[in-house]
Amino acid sequence: MIIITPRYTIIEDGAINKLEEVLKNLNLKNPLIVTGRNTKKYCKFSYDIVYYDEILNSQIRFEYDSIIGVGGGKAIDTGKYLAYKLGIPFISVPTTASNDGIASPIVSIKQPSFMASAPIAIIADTEIIKKSPKRLLSAGMGDIVSNITAVLDWKLAYKEKGERYSESSAIFSKTIAKELISYVLNSDLLEYHSKLVKALVGSGIAIAIANSSRPASGSEHLFSHALDRLKEEYNLNVNSLHGEQCGVGTIMMSYLHEKENKKLSGLHEKIKMSLKKVNAPTTAKELGFDEDIIVEALTIAHKIRDRWTILRTGLSREEARKLAEETGVI
Ligand SMILES: NC(=O)C1=CN([C@@H]2O[C@H](COP(=O)(O)OP(=O)(O)OC[C@H]3O[C@@H](n4cnc5c(N)ncnc54)[C@H](O)[C@@H]3O)[C@@H](O)[C@H]2O)C=CC1
Ligand SMILES: O=C(CO)COP(=O)(O)O
Ligand SMILES: [Zn+2]
């Protein structure tokens, strides 16, 4: 099995100033930068720049030898996708820490997400990230706590369906989440932004090691993808973020796991507390959804993809409502 991980990972204040040195070391001379309107200010380079939401209708000339994604999740995901399509290296330059797409080999612009290639380099400037909107940094916690239920689901699929399971990437992914939860619950959060970036990078690498998003995406992500589907279907004007949705999903899915395994008692409360500590949403109201959308998302989540989880063959409306009520989500 071939495991491809980033060749350079730089996580420090001022890291963005090392981009040209990294390009030189990689013998890359003519990158195209993919970014967003809020993050173009960080692209102080002489290279061509394109906005991620203009890619689809812009003529991308094939002379580029690499793609650099500078920005949040969509900018990075779009750049990663373009690099994969063109068969050229991708460099991830996150300007915030909202999800593990900054390091993963996955492209999830829309569902189903697919396995592309890991960034050849990750350049995370903690000075820029620290100044990014707090809401994005809160969302990142949601995409990390989700590793807890993702690994519990993966183990369940191994036991109940004989699915391939990698103990090493599962332990790695779970430990990353447990360590960040412990830091958040027992500190003044002064180092939160840099610990969050390291956790998200680790989570992306765990996906690369497993060659699957299983270590970081289980029933809680199915719930989040179900919400995305309902947003589209009902044309809902809700701008909840991926990590925020996954955080609320993790509260509920960890509760389902707790009910089947006494050793996990108190898990969902601990996860909820860690999300609250960083001001991430823990209820439907804080996410911006009506109760009935949360209930409906819970009843369709198991159908989002062929991935066996604690949801098994799905929740009835009554079971879904009861779950959301007992966890305080509605
Ligand atoms: N490939 C993967 O493994 C994954 C990819 N994703 C992708 O991530 C997307 C969600 O990403 P999010 O970041 O949650 O939302 P987003 O990308 O939709 O929005 C982030 C917003 O924050 C802004 N922003 C970023 N850094 C900033 C800074 N330093 N200062 C001011 N504004 C800044 C961006 O310009 C953008 O408007 C999904 O739609 C999906 O495409 C999500 C999860 C995993
Ligand atoms: O969001 C992800 C990991 O955090 C990617 O997961 P999916 O495979 O569910 O799109
Ligand atoms: Zn995620």
Automatic annotation (TrEMBL):
Compartments, record wording: Cytoplasm
Binding-site residues for NAD(+), renumbered to this chain: 73-77, 95-98, 104
Keywords, alphabetical: Cytoplasm, Lipid biosynthesis, Lipid metabolism, Metal-binding, NAD, NADP, Oxidoreductase, Phospholipid biosynthesis, Phospholipid metabolism, Zinc
Pathway linked to the protein: Membrane lipid metabolism; glycerophospholipid metabolism
Enzyme Commission (EC) number: 1.1.1.261
Cofactor(s) named in the record: Zn(2+)
GO molecular function: glycerol-1-phosphate dehydrogenase (NAD+) activity; glycerol-1-phosphate dehydrogenase (NADP+) activity; metal ion binding
BP GO terms, sorted: glycerophospholipid metabolic process; phospholipid biosynthetic process
Keyword Transport attached: no
Binding site for Zn(2+): 143, 221, 242
One Pfam family per UniProt: Fe-ADH_2
Keyword Oxidoreductase belongs to the record: yes
Primary residence: cytoplasm
Annotated substrate binding sites: 100, 143, 225
A GO-annotated cellular component: cytoplasm
Top-rank lineage group of the source organism: Archaea
Co-factor: note: Binds 1 zinc ion per subunit.
UniProt catalytic activity: sn-glycerol 1-phosphate + NAD(+) = dihydroxyacetone phosphate + NADH + H(+); sn-glycerol 1-phosphate + NADP(+) = dihydroxyacetone phosphate + NADPH + H(+)
Protein role: Catalyzes the NAD(P)H-dependent reduction of dihydroxyacetonephosphate (DHAP or glycerone phosphate) to glycerol 1-phosphate (G1P). The G1P thus generated is used as the glycerophosphate backbone of phospholipids in the cellular membranes of Archaea.
HAMAP family: G1P_dehydrogenase_A (MF_00497_A)
Family (UniProt): Belongs to the glycerol-1-phosphate dehydrogenase family.
Name of the protein: Glycerol-1-phosphate dehydrogenase [NAD(P)+]
Organism: Methanocaldococcus fervens (strain DSM 4213 / JCM 15782 / AG86) (Methanococcus fervens)
Upper classification of the organism: Archaea, Methanobacteriati, Methanobacteriota, Methanomada group, Methanococci
